[in-house]
TrEMBL record:
The organism of origin for this protein: Reichenbachiella faecimaris
Coiled-coil regions listed in the entry: none
Origin superkingdom: Bacteria
Name of this protein: Dimethylhistidine N-methyltransferase
Domain named Histidine-specific methyltransferase SAM-dependent: residues: 17-320
Keyword terms of this UniProt record: Methyltransferase, Transferase
GO terms under biological process: methylation
Amino acid sequence: MFETLEKEIVKQKQFLTDVLEGLSSETKHISSKYFYDKKGDAIFQQIMHMDEYYLTDAELNIFETHKCEIAKIFSPEKEPFNLIEFGAGDGLKTKILLNELLSHDIPFDYVPIDISQNALDQLNKSLTKGMPNLSFKGIQGDYFEVLNRLKEDNGRRNVVLFLGSNIGNFTNEEALSFTSEIAEKLNAGDLFFIGVDLKKNPRKILLAYNDPTGITAEFNYNLLRRINRELGGNFNPDQFEHHPTYDPVTGECKSALLSKIEQEVEIDGHTFHFAQWEPIHTEISRKYSVKQLHTLAEKSGFKVKTDLFDSNKYFVDSIWEI
Ligand code: AVI
């Protein structure tokens, strides 16, 4: 109880430090990891159900089409393994895979890792209701710490899922250091299963991050509202405009909030000046080519085993082996 409270205080301090630092920079920025408070989680759920946000359906399509093949790759001889998932989410896609594995009587533990115990409890409830035979072993904590522990565990194969193009929210350097660290923590023969959004018609991409109903805009404004709620800021979200851009060369879809007027905003006794149309960068959602993705795999020490595409070739689930 005290430990949780202490952790919460440390997290809040870090949030304040990051926001103050980001808004004091030459190019103002706030990390997209702060999108995800309770309200932000709920808006992201709405985003995933929007027609414009094609990523969810594309990855679901891959799971539906290739589930049998995936199950065989994970456990060719029906040997027991750990199915580890980074970031619990709502389990919508994973559920397809879990059902497939169970229907083939393949023995496995499902090990979702998340920093939120609440997210894990909810997932446990929703999954085990429909799958009473599922061995659910959710672990609260940091991805790498948990991988370290599992590495020494019971000599089983580890299969790590990192779905939903979450890798896109990292810069190139962050992505490489993330996948390299996973490669280091896994044993020979273990697998990394990564879902990645591919480069495509820029109009299709921009629409996914600028839906006409304004849900994605609200996702961004929630960041300002969160700063007001938790750090005592006085942002007026109406005085900012959601502004996504996409560069087909780098594959970077970037979101920013532009100050519609010249204004000053106060946060915890600090004043920040905004020129008219000055941006606060909030998110990068990078799109990859298959070639760029394979380079990332090789540079981080993996071998690409196979690529699975949806019927439109919008998205790839790539399976890497160590
Ligand atoms: C979580 N992440 C992969 C989403 C993305 O597509 O970058 C977050 C998101 N931001 C705006 N819409 C969705």
